[in-house]
């Protein structure tokens, strides 16, 4: 399962919206466009909207998700996107929609006009169920259920200017541009018709690769990583990834500007995470299928437990007001408390510091955040000095520095000198 938090374009979405996402894909020359299908079967788009690829009927970009009305409630199951740029979408009923750049007729709608909104493709596929689509930079492929039955083709894929197909007997065919040997047919001549990749039939060439040299035949790499169950690549960038039977994820290629010539093990659990973190641009290699469940992270749970009477095992009495905390958290976070706590303590009276200051200190131990006006931050700075809390002291110094006015500058300056504030 991919972690959607790794994709920057989704970082400002509301948690409730994210939790309702079913399918998401990221594309665009800078990984700056996205399409989303939610669990209510509504389709949304956000991003720069290059060539109208968001399908919104206009060319306006949007930081916030906008509904793609013409695709809502259509049962969209998958997308494909080319760097031209253009987009294809298929429904559960096998209908095919296309939109975006169309200078090379890649939308398949019988013309060359740009499509600002998704259009249903009827030419040659009307009445047939489309089950898979793929996009190159300026071309498209659609696989129908009829073709799967009669021609035994089970999958298709596109490079930037080339195409591949797999038959159910294991044969692989390639056609299109072949200047770098990307078809794997033993030469670099372009192919106008599908050409069988003979080296993928039966025995594969047994040769380890650790080079940038182009290869005109398929070669076996990294046998030591074990059985590979899924591979990923995109014509948007120059990175590849593999998932092994033991759920390890490897990557190689141009990884954030670095040439990784042999598969490198990553800490990821999804191939999508490789593309989110190391591909340039960061685009999904295929649509992500998500099942996001909103659960509190450890940090969120700790934050919410501050001043929670039900779970606390210690109270501070400051100015007659109680603050409920947890001994274990305070001992983990603060050397002062680690050395002073005794098991029988239930309530500790604090007289040296005010309630707002001491509450802010305890809350900092739970959240790493400080929210006080500059005048109160002086008292917290005093506490930070007393308890030897270096990070808290830095927070206080920033608050005081940013809160300087004509009225309080003398007082704050005197406090800075008193507490040896360096900022």
From TrEMBL:
Q: What UniProt keywords are attached to this protein's entry? A: Repeat
In which ranges do the RCC repeats occur? 41-93, 94-146, 170-244
Domain BTB span(s) in chain numbering: 312-374
Q: Which residues span the membrane?
A: none
The lineage's top-level taxon is: Eukaryota
Task: Answer whether the UniProt record assigns the keyword Ligase to this protein.
Answer: no
Asked whether the keyword rRNA-binding is assigned, the reply is no
What SUPFAM superfamilies does the entry give? Answer: POZ domain, RCC1/BLIP-II
Q: What is this protein called?
A: RCC1 and BTB domain-containing protein 1
Q: Which species does the entry assign this protein to? A: Caerostris extrusa
List the taxonomic lineage.
Eukaryota, Metazoa, Ecdysozoa, Arthropoda, Chelicerata
């Amino acid at each position: 399962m991919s972690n959607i938090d790794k994709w920057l374009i989704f970082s400002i979405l509301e948690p409730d919206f994210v939790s309702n996402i079913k399918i998401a894909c990221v594309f665009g020359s800078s990984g700056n466009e996205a399409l989303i299908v939610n669990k209510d079967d509504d389709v949304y788009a956000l991003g720069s909207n290059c060539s109208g690829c968001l399908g919104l009927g206009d060319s306006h970009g949007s930081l916030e998700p906008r509904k793609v009305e013409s695709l809502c409630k259509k049962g969209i199951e998958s997308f494909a996107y080319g760097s031209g740029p253009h987009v294809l979408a298929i429904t559960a009923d096998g209908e095919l929609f296309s939109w975006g750049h169309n200078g090379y007729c890649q939308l398949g709608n019988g013309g060359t006009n740009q499509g600002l909104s998704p259009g249903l493709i009827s030419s040659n596929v009307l009445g047939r169920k489309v089950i898979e689509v793929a996009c190159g930079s300026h071309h498209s492929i659609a696989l129908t259920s009829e073709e799967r039955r009669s021609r035994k083709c089970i999958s298709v894929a596109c490079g930037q200017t080339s195409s591949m197909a797999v038959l159910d007997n294991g044969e692989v065919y390639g056609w299109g541009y072949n200047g770098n040997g990307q078809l794997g047919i033993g030469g670099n001549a372009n192919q106008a018709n599908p050409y069988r990749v003979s080296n993928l039939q039966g025995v594969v060439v047994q040769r380890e690769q650790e080079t940038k040299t182009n290869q005109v035949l398929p070669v076996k790499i990294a046998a030591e990583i074990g059985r590979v169950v899924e591979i990923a690549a995109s014509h948007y960038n120059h990175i590849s990834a593999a998932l092994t039977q033991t759920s390890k994820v490897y990557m190689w290629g141009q990884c954030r500007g670095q040439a990784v010539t042999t598969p490198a093990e990553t800490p990821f659990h999804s191939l999508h995470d490789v593309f989110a973190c190391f591909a340039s641009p960061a685009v999904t290699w295929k649509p992500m299928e998500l099942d996001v469940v909103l659960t509190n992270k450890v940090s969120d749970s700790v934050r919410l437990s501050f001043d929670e009477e039900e779970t606390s095992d210690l109270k501070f009495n400051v100015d007659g007001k109680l603050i409920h905390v947890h001994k274990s958290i305070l001992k983990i976070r603060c050397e002062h408390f680690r050395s002073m706590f005794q098991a029988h303590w239930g309530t500790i009276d604090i007289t040296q510091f005010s309630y707002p200051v001491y509450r802010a200190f305890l809350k900092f131990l739970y959240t790493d955040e400080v929210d006080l006006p500059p005048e109160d931050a002086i008292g917290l700075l005093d506490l930070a000095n007393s308890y030897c809390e270096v990070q808290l002291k830095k927070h206080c110094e920033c608050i005081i520095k940013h809160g300087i006015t004509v009225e309080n500058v003398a007082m704050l300056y005197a406090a800075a000198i008193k507490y040896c504030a360096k900022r």
